[in-house]
Amino acid sequence: KDDSSQPLNEHKDKLLDGLLTAGFDERSCLSRYESALYRKASPHKPSSYLLSRLRSYEALHKSCGPYTESYNKTVEKLRSGSKVGPTDCNYVVWIAFSGLGNRILTLASAFLYALLTNRVLLVDRGTDMADLFCEPFPEMSWLLPLDFPLNQFNKFDQKFPQCHGYMLKNSILNNSKTSLPLFLYLHLVHDYDDHDKLFFCDQYQALLQKVPWLIMKTDNYFVPSLFLIHSFEEELNNLFPDKGTVFHHLGRYLFHPSNPVWGLITRYYQAYLANADERVGIQIRVFDIGTGPFQHVLDQILACSLKEKLLPEVNNQEPILNPTGNRKSKAVLLTSLSSGYFEKIRNIYWEYPTVNGEVISIYQPSHEEYQQTEKQIHNRKAWAEMYLLSLTDKLITSSWSTFGYVAQSLGGLKPWILKKPENKTVPDPPCVRDMSMEPCFHAPPFYDCKAKTGTDTGAIVPHVRHCEDMSWGLKLV
Ligand code: GDP
Question: Which family does it belong to (predicted)?
Answer without folding.
Answer: Belongs to the glycosyltransferase 37 family.
